[in-house]
UniProtKB/TrEMBL annotation:
Residues 7-58 form the SAM domain. It holds the Pfam family SAM_2. The lineage of its organism: Eukaryota, Viridiplantae, Streptophyta, Embryophyta, Bryophyta. It comes from Ceratodon purpureus. Gene3D superfamilies: Transcription Factor, Ets-1. Signal peptide: none annotated. It comes from the Eukaryota. InterPro entries: SAM, SAM/pointed_sf. This is SAM domain-containing protein.
Amino acid sequence: MTIEWFSWLAEVGMQKHGRLMVSNHLDEDDIEHFNHDLLRSIGVDNAKDRLLILNQKNKHIQRRSSNKNHLSSRQLAAEAQSAIIRRVQTLQVDEVKLVNWIRKTWPLCNRQILIDRGYLSATAPKPGSVAVMANYDRTHIGNELLNSAKDILWAALYGTFESNVLIHRVERELLVITIPGRKAFVFNFFQAVTEVGALGTWRDPANRCHDEDESNMLLQVEYGESANEVVGDAIMVSIHVINLLEVNEVVLYARSSNIEQSTLLTELYFEKHQLAAAMLHKPGEK
């Protein structure tokens, strides 16, 4: 790949060597091969200059690696969202299905039960482990249950008629999940989410799950609740399942609260104020 050598070298004040890079037909792919011998061979005689150029090489490689990781994370998130949306569209989720899913799933929200019934391996890491659970820590039916929980969570948070989710939403709620930053990628299928970094301050009196000085991530999502509040119930049960089967915290903190006003322009907002708009609309106006 071509590179503008004068600008690249100017970051460390070495633009005077730009002509050497050009005359030797070097391009961006050659940067990773830079060393003292190569730079000396093309005419960079001063050792201090070579050190500065090699320092710029290291920065360049780090930036490129960071960009690749960022793109990879975004691609993985997009793929996770697409897979869930495809599954949700075949489910035709409504409030009755949410109730039935909760009734079937809630009794499984216990680690020992998941192990006894063959959803989770007996050798799975203990709750509170640094890493999340891997696929091999769950059985086939365990992975199916995890996917089901993520599908229901997505449908409850984001589902609309367009995605074949038939829930009548009557008010806005705010979901906040507090999760260690290193595990936040588990919820990479979230859309329209606010991520806030914060150090934990909680010390558990039972000495089981301190998060003091933990580098946490707060995930905040607005969603529409139904009149019978089954959406919120489905959200909490699905998060509980996701924690037991993947996040693997002793306690995964999540709470919902009512929102009186919101700057988000949602379908619910327009539905709520449709009548008022019609009353203000004068006949003959467009």
